[in-house]
Design brief:
- The structure holds 2 protein chains of 2 kinds.
- By secondary structure, chain A is α+β, with helices and mostly antiparallel strands.
- Chain A is about 30% helix and about 25% strand.
- Chain A has 3 domains: about 110 residues, RNA polymerase II/Efflux pump adaptor protein, barrel-sandwich hybrid domain (OB fold (Dihydrolipoamide Acetyltransferase, E2P)); about 60 residues, E3-binding domain (Dihydrolipoamide Transferase, Irregular); about 220 residues, Chloramphenicol acetyltransferase-like domain (Chloramphenicol Acetyltransferase), CATH 3.30.559.10.
- In chain A, the strands form 5 sheets. In chain A, strands 10-19-18-17-13-16 form a 6-stranded mixed β-sheet.
- The radius of gyration of chain A is 32 Å and the shape is elongated.
- Chain A starts with a strand and ends in an 8-residue tail after the last helix.
- Chain B folds into 2 domains: about 180 residues, 3-Layer(aba) Sandwich (Rossmann fold); about 130 residues, 3-Layer(aba) Sandwich (Rossmann fold).
- In chain B, the strands form 3 sheets. Chain B has a 7-stranded mixed β-sheet with strand order 3-2-4-5-7-6-12, sandwiched between helices.
- The N and C termini of chain B lie far apart (about 40 Å).
- Classes of the chains: A alpha+beta, B alpha/beta.
């Protein structure tokens, strides 16, 4: 049976290759693994061996020509005769070249091999997929199934041992792609400036301790620091509304209402920022419930398009992991984003009428990145000072509802 | 929890719904005074009286025609077809009338009725009284199709079928009527269209229905004890709607799937599931899909021959052993 020689896939991202030299002429006898031609791509220059014994019957692509991966280059005939229309494509890598570019593949002759032979050669769909995903050479994996068949568990065991595995390829899903595009666009669009303040959370902490037991019993989830910070952000925005805005052309569109986007991590499998409408009119308790609601729905993939649209300011919370400071990327087309990081107890100097003393207080960093096209450092700093002031001086215990 | 037989669970399910909703009525051949030929409806006449529990002439067309009319005019009838084989006698009313009315009236007329019927082989009743025909009903758009494997599901799914606004064909399995099982006390209702994972294994996912469920479970225990093969066993419970979410999730976990069907092989329900699995999770399969079915023959009446046709525990064990390599 004649064999089609196709342009091999020489690397994950390579789409085409150039034939630099044919090592054989039409009519030459070739042996398997003998150099057949050389290919150059934008990544490598390499020699390609013949996949089987035979006679080089046809050369379809001349030296110097560049063709896409999978394109037919030549035909090797087993008996010296060309059979250009019914060749079996030969590939050179465990990741098959796209067959779209190859000619129609004939059905294998049914009687040619017994069931035992078929079984030995058969690779199940899941094994094929795992091999392609992880870039594995199946010849290197010992099969434990009947007649040496490679089973899914054999591939998993092979992967677990880490043998031959230098990297794994995780294809971007839709969310990953969108996030990647958004992040690049945001950094390219907005000149980011990072500013941070350190805030003392003793009054928030007192409110949490005062309300936690009743809250847990009534609401069924924990009252965290985040709704207090969200409330303080809303009151600070009331004083400095230009952080609650978008840029349109050469205008800064400043919003009267605050639609607060809250970044939610989907179990390390992606990031979304659902929006809490009119957050400025909500109490701490109402914000706590709204944040909980969008987070739960985000993780259950039950957010609608409306939940993700129309945010005017974003809070990103890495605090649960105990980070110290995060420089977040602005959620376009907004102009500012706040990161809340880990809050931990520290000795702080307290100034009182009887002089200075040292107290133990929960302290955390609030870091805002703003778009320097929209506002300047002094404005952002004044906003942050107000935010810090609201967190430290509000009597939160008396004002969660 | 009370221990009921499968047949007692039928009566308990009907009684629960008749007590709850005065619009629920029940009719069929010998279902009232005699309590049903399989004694699955004993006591309903005494409890609910002859206006709501009626014996009918021996005419399947009359039974379903009456049920359809009653449903169109506001009742929630339960109609019994004694043997599911006899559905062929009144199939025009099922397939062309009952299944189509809601669509053809643009939703103006709903048919909240249940067709209960005794289905399946294993009782030496011969070719005309032993068929498993749940796949007939599955092939008609507009019908819901349920086939429970145990007393608790009989009561809970029957209650759900009666409360559903669409026609439901409810296949009870003749060879299971004497089987006992725990049934929750008080009102018990299940959700239509949900499969149940009965056993968790890592090697193969076995899908079974009705009388094949206990056989699949027994086979799974033997495979574990004798061959160290651990099978997940799923009771499909409802063919329409089909719980593809549970089925595909469990198939992907093991990478192998086998169906155990009492239908004759061609167009048995497992063929539809095999097709869905091949389309939806081909790249997660580690072996060809396996169907264990009754061969495509009329069922014999002789003991030894019937046992050679309907899938047995031994056949399930042997086939799965062969398939898992």
């Amino acid at each position: 049976m004649p064999i089609d020689i196709v342009m091999p896939q020489l690397g994950e991202t390579v789409k085409e290759g150039t034939i630099t030299v044919w090592r054989k002429k039409i009519g030459d006898r070739v042996k398997a693994d003998e150099p057949l031609f050389d290919v150059s791509t934008d990544k490598v220059e390499t020699e390609i061996p013949a996949p089987a014994d035979g006679v080089l019957a046809e050369i379809l692509v001349a030296e110097g020509a560049t063709v896409p991966v999978g394109a037919r280059l030549a035909v090797i005939a087993s008996d010296g005769r060309a059979g250009a229309t019914s060749a079996t494509p030969a590939t050179f890598s465990p990741v098959s070249a796209p067959t779209a570019a190859a000619p129609a593949i004939p059905m294998p002759p049914r009687a040619a091999s017994g069931p035992r032979d078929r079984r030995r050669r058969s690779i199940s769909p899941v094994v094929r997929r795992l091999a392609a995903t992880h870039g594995l050479d199946l010849a290197a994996i010992a099969g434990t199934g009947r007649d040496g068949r490679i089973k899914r568990d054999d591939v998993r065991a092979h992967l677990a041992r880490g043998a031959a595995l230098e990297c794994s390829v995780i294809p971007f899903n839709r969310l990953r792609r969108l996030t990647a595009q958004h992040m690049v666009r945001s950094k390219a669009t907005s000149p980011h400036v990072l500013q941070a303040v350190e805030a003392e959370f003793h009054r928030v902490d007192a409110a949490r301790r005062a309300h936690q037991a009743a809250w847990q019993a009534r609401e069924g989830f924990e009252l965290t620091f985040l709704p207090f910070i969200a409330k303080a952000v809303c009151t600070a925005i009331a004083a400095f509304p230009r952080v609650n805005a978008v840029i349109e052309g050469e205008n800064l569109v400043v919003f009267g209402r605050i639609h607060l986007a809250i970044a939610v991590d989907l179990g390390h499998e992606g990031l979304v920022a659902p929006v809490i409408r009119d957050a400025g009119s909500r109490s701490v308790a109402a914000l706590a419930r709204a944040i909980r609601d969008v987070a739960v729905r985000a993780r259950a993939s039950r957010l609608g398009p409306d939940d993700l649209a129309g945010g005017t300011y974003t809070i990103s919370n890495s605090g649960v992991f105990g980070t110290m400071i995060t420089a977040p990327i602005i959620n376009q087309p907004q102009v500012a984003i706040l990161s809340t990081d880990g809050i931990c107890k520290r000795p702080v100097v307290v100034e009182g009428p009887e002089g200075d003393s040292i107290a133990i207080r929960p302290v955390g960093v609030l870091a805002q990145c703003f778009d320097h096209r929209a506002i300047d450092g002094a404005y952002s700093a004044a906003f942050l000072r107000t935010l810090k002031d609201r967190i430290e001086t509000t009597d939160w215990t008396a004002s969660i509802d | 929890m009370a221990e009921l037989t499968y047949r007692e669970a039928v009566a308990a399910g009907i009684a629960q719904e008749m007590a709850r909703d005065p619009n629920v009525v029940f009719l069929g051949e010998d279902v009232a005074a005699a309590g049903g030929v399989f004694k699955a409806t004993v006591g309903l006449l005494e409890q609910f009286g002859p206006r709501r529990v009626r014996d009918t002439p021996i005419s399947e067309q009359a039974i379903l025609g009456a049920a359809m009319g009653a449903a169109m005019t506001g009742l929630r009838p339960i109609a019994e077809i004694m043997f599911s084989d006899f559905l062929a006698v009144c199939w025009d009313i099922v397939a062309n009338e009952i299944a189509k009315t809601r669509y053809m009236t643009a939703g103006q007329v709903t048919l909240p009725l249940v067709i209960r019927t005794a289905n399946g082989g294993g009782s030496r009743f011969g070719a005309q009284h032993s068929q498993s025909v749940e796949n007939w009903a599955m092939a008609v758009p507009g019908l819901k199709v349920v086939a429970p494997s145990n007393p608790a599901d009989v009561k809970g799914l029957l209650a759900a079928a009666i409360r559903d606004d669409d026609p439901v064909v409810f296949f009870e399995h003749k060879s299971l009527y004497a089987v006992k099982g725990e049934v929750p006390d008080g009102e018990h209702i299940e959700r239509l269209g949900t499969a149940k994972v009965l056993r968790d294994g890592r090697d193969v996912t076995v899908l079974a229905l009705a009388a094949m469920v206990p056989k699949a479970l027994a086979a799974a225990e033997r495979l574990a004890a004798e061959h160290r093969i651990e099978a997940t066993v799923i009771d499909v419970r409802s063919l329409v709607p089909l719980d593809t979410e549970t089925i595909l999730r469990e198939v992907v976990k093991t990478g192998r799937v086998a169906t155990v069907e009492e239908n004759p092989r061609l167009c048995g329900w497992g063929a539809e599931i095999a097709s869905i699995v091949a389309e939806e999770c081909f790249w997660d399969l580690d072996a060809p899909i396996v169907r264990i079915t009754t061969p495509h023959v009329p069922l014999p009446s002789a003991d030894n021959l019937e046992d050679a046709t309907v899938p047995t525990v031994e056949r399930i064990v042997a086939t799965l052993r062969q398939a898992i390599d």
